[in-house]
């Protein structure tokens, strides 16, 4: 039994570390709201569509709880998403894309997103498609612009 518990701890520990490596973070001196406003502008200027903006801190307040500023923007571009879904329709589970702006425990604001190559690595051939590199490049460029 002890071996099973140790094996489980090692497996889960590795999974948590791997998940953390899948998240890309870009620091900014802007507030959460300013950073996500800038990101939303960059997304619009790139020709993508914004589907929703979620304010997690406002949601927490509605139930009498508090968290530091934390917002998510959900957006996409069919020119990138459709080719991924043509390869494997399950790519639609991970699309549209999301970027989070949040304030950490030290007051530092971050723009964060999950690496689409890692997100879709279990799908049939999507992670090897050139469209994934386009998504990665777009996310890196847009978050960099927003962070400035």
Automatic annotation (TrEMBL):
Domain DUF302: 54-116
One Pfam family here: DUF302
Record's keyword terms, sorted: Signal
Cleavable signal peptide: 1-20
Organism, scientific name: Ruegeria profundi
Matching CDD domains: DUF302
Protein name: Camphor resistance protein CrcB
Keyword Nucleotide-binding: no
Highest taxon listed in the record's lineage: Bacteria
Keyword match Ion transport: no
